[in-house]
């Protein structure tokens, strides 16, 4: 088995997405040689009240941020769930989809 280059995973409410999210992700991408950083806006945060902005508005903001940062990719999977966005569910899905890709969970 040949491993592919690692990818970074950064989830959050992103209400709004800001430099405090982006700068550490940029630094991690560069320091770890990540092939990409996936930004995963969640739909129903399990740890706080509902976001001020709608899921559609937050997705639009994340798309704009990704467009300005090479190697950033928007992953909408958590927005399509009707349940809280538990990280373990997302990581299990990604592991199933990308069995030969190291996943770097960014916090």
Please outline the major beta sheet: 4 strands, parallel
Order of strands in the sheet with the most strands?
Answer: 3-2-1-4
- Overall, the morphology is globular
Strand content: 15-25%
Q: C-alpha Rg, in Å?
A: 13 Å
Contiguous runs where pLDDT drops below 50 for at least 5 residues: none
Count of helix runs: 3
Q: What's the rounded overall pLDDT mean?
A: 93
Notes on the structure:
The chain has 107 residues and is α/β, with parallel strands linked by helices. Helix content is 36%, strand content 17%. The protein is built from three helices and four strands; from the N terminus they run βαβαβαβ. It has helices spanning 19-32, 55-67, 87-97, and strands at 7-12, 36-41, 72-74, 103-105. A four-stranded parallel β-sheet has the order 3-2-1-4, sandwiched between helices. α2 links the parallel β2 (36-41) and β3 (72-74). It is globular and about 45 Å long.
Furnish the topology, listing elements before pairings.
Elements lengths: L6 E6 L6 H14 L3 E6 L13 H13 L4 E3 L12 H11 L5 E3 L2
Parallel strand pairs: 1-2, 1-4, 2-3
């Amino acid at each position: 088995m040949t491993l592919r280059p690692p990818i970074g995973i950064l989830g959050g409410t992103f209400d709004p997405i800001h430099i405090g999210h982006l700068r550490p992700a940029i630094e991690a991408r560069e320091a770890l040689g990540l092939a990409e950083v996936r930004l995963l806006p969640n739909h129903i945060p399990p740890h706080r009240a509902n976001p001020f902005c709608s899921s559609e508005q937050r997705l639009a903001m994340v798309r704009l941020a990704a467009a300005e940062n090479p190697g950033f990719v928007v992953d909408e999977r958590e927005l399509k769930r009707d349940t809280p966005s538990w990280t373990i569910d997302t990581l299990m899905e990604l592991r199933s989809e990308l069995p030969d890709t190291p996943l770097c969970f960014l916090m």
